[in-house]
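OP here, attaching both records as promised.
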Amino acid sequence: MDRWVSLAGPNRGTTTAWACALWDQACRDMTPGSYVVRNLAGGDETPGAVRYATFWSQCDETVNPDSSVPLDGAANTPVGCLRHNALPGDPATAAGVRAFLAED
């Protein structure tokens, strides 16, 4: 079965993207309510026969609000109080990702 994993992804947008939205298209795309965010949120958040997982932190200084990360239909895992860029190198988060990928 196919799997999809998100580490602190701004799935519903992030208010911090407004800081660079004037000059950067990627930032504009990540602002809450943007065309991209609206279209990604339109319909099933976890389509198809793929198993989805998100890992997020309540101390993420980049993705705000924290509730932007979890997706309906996904295995949504809080990882404690980690900064945004700490998630990829966190041993406990890595173990959670490996466990999700190894599930039958």
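Record two, same layout:
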Amino acid sequence: MATQRIELGLTASTPSGEGCGDGCGCGHAAAAAAPTPSASEGLSDSELRVEGMTCAHCVRAVTEELDALDGVEVAGIDLNVGGVSIVRIRSNGTAGDDELAAAIDEAGYALVR
């Protein structure tokens, strides 16, 4: 399976019907690979394992939910199509683990505990 790293701190508006380019058929354009968030003072890192993510649309759904949380500065993801993806979150500590897990659940994906 291919692994792709995608920065979750930014979202892009894409016309529907383009597809991810990997044949998933979701109707969204593929996101460009980006580096993992860099270190900053006063921020903490969380790492969550998530099942069910298969494309850029999946990444975008998780991004939107995480971005809506107070304190989330940046999130990065190692997308493992069809497997367990790693979501790395840098925050100021305001968003707790339960809130992060609820955001991922709200996006429609399963947190692996």
